[in-house]
Specification:
The protein is an alpha/beta fold. It has ten helices and 16 strands. The strands form three sheets. The protein has a six-stranded parallel beta sheet with strand order 13-12-11-14-15-16, with helices on both faces. Strands 3-2-1-5-4 form a five-stranded antiparallel beta sheet.
Length: about 375
């Protein structure tokens, strides 16, 4: 998320200076690779590179190819096969054991679907959208590499795909992908030929709401912003809920705990951390937040304290579906032996990332199978 924001900033800067840019996007992988489909890198005519598509082993070669693409205006599909035992002889010294397909293009302008504009729209509207890129065409003139379809957050599609029938087929697939929250590669058989397309679900920055503006909230905000998440801090104390105290936060809201659901957007993508250190405030916050569809509610403090909070809500007659209580995580954070505020912040955000991606955390060395799997992110 932070990487995408950096890419968009660099693209805007280059555009203001009138400098041409190229965009490299991983559209397909197999085997073990450092980055996954959707990873991007922006390259400028002057040689600046923002973002990454590998651990550093492919970037230099892609930069050289980008200069050729900027000159010709013709997109290229770069294929890096790292499965060979003699890849060191090839000269790149690659350390992975898979293959990567990188779609390299001059950033288009004046077309119905412009990838950078689409990515910026997702961030600006804080909403997911579907972006499809045709990256390989064989045996047909019914499509060209670089043609795209965009499914906007409001559900309206736009495309520059010349073949209407193909566009309709792709539209159905991107609607399904957006509903499931899964990006994928699709192959379309035409008469004649075939087309491969990368169907990408572009997710906006993760929305994190921190209820409580104490000293220990500061490193949570700072670390979350370094990840590119959208951070809101809410507190009822005027001396604490200030932008000066939380300069990295996107928004700081002064609100009584019982009104937080009216003052802060709390949808199915939102993650909430409650860390007020005040029992009565936490009780009011849980009363307000539990009925909302937020994805995660982390409560700082011992398990017994949180169980008492939930028990008291039930005794007060608060009617909340039982499955909603499953979103409550307390004690908050992964078990990494955290002690300092910075370590606790790391444990909290690591748990949120694990919940977001549907992972159980743990050591990668104990994992049997692939590290990267097809997973839905931020589904309701």
């Amino acid at each position: 998320m932070k990487e995408l924001q950096d890419i968009l900033t660099a693209w805007r800067d280059a555009r203001e200076k009138g400098e041409e840019t190229a965009l490299a996007t991983i559209v397909k992988v197999s085997g073990s690779t450092y980055r996954r489909p959707g990873a991007r890198m922006l390259l400028t005519r002057s040689g600046r590179m923002v973002g990454s598509i590998s651990g550093g082993c492919l970037e230099g070669d892609v930069l050289e190819k980008a200069r050729e693409v900027l000159d010709s205006g013709q997109p290229r599909l770069l294929e890096y096969d790292m499965t060979a035992d003699d890849d060191l002889v090839w000269g790149l010294g690659l350390g992975c054991n898979g293959s990567v397909h990188v779609f390299l293009e001059r950033v288009p302008t004046g077309r119905p679907v412009e990838p950078m504009e689409a990515l910026e729209e997702s961030v600006r509207q804080n909403a997911a959208l579907g972006l499809v890129t045709i990256f390989k065409v064989e045996g047909t003139d019914r499509a060209r590499p670089g043609e795209r379809l965009l499914l906007r957050p409001d559900g309206s599609p736009v495309w520059d795909i010349r073949d209407a029938e193909l566009a309709e087929r792709i539209l159905r697939d991107v609607q399904d992908a957006l509903e499931r929250g899964l990006s994928r590669v699709a192959t379309y058989a035409l008469d004649p030929g075939t087309v491969e397309a990368f169907i990408e679900v572009v997710q906006p920055p993760l929305p994190l709401v921190i209820c409580g503006a104490g000293h220990d909230a500061i490193p949570v905000v700072r670390l979350a912003r370094s990840l590119g998440w959208r951070v809101t801090v809410a507190d009822s104390r005027p001396a604490y809920a200030t932008k000066e105290r939380f300069p990295e936060a996107d928004e700081v809201i002064l609100t009584p705990p019982e009104e937080v659901a009216q003052r802060v957007p709390l949808d199915h993508r939102t993650y909430v951390v409650i860390m007020t250190h005040n029992y009565n405030h936490d009780l009011k916050l849980l009363r307000a937040i539990l009925p909302t569809p937020v994805r995660y509610i982390g409560v700082l403090g011992p398990r017994a304290r949180t169980e008492r909070l939930l028990r008291e809500l039930r005794e007060q007659g608060v009617e909340i579906p039982e499955e909603r209580y499953g979103r409550v995580y307390s004690p908050i954070g992964l078990n990494i032996g955290a002690d300092t505020p910075e370590e606790i912040a790391l444990a909290i955000l690591a748990e949120i990332q694990a919940v977001r991606t549907g992972r159980g955390a743990g050591f990668l060395r104990d994992l049997r199978g692939r590290i990267h799997e097809e997973i839905a992110i931020s589904r309701p």
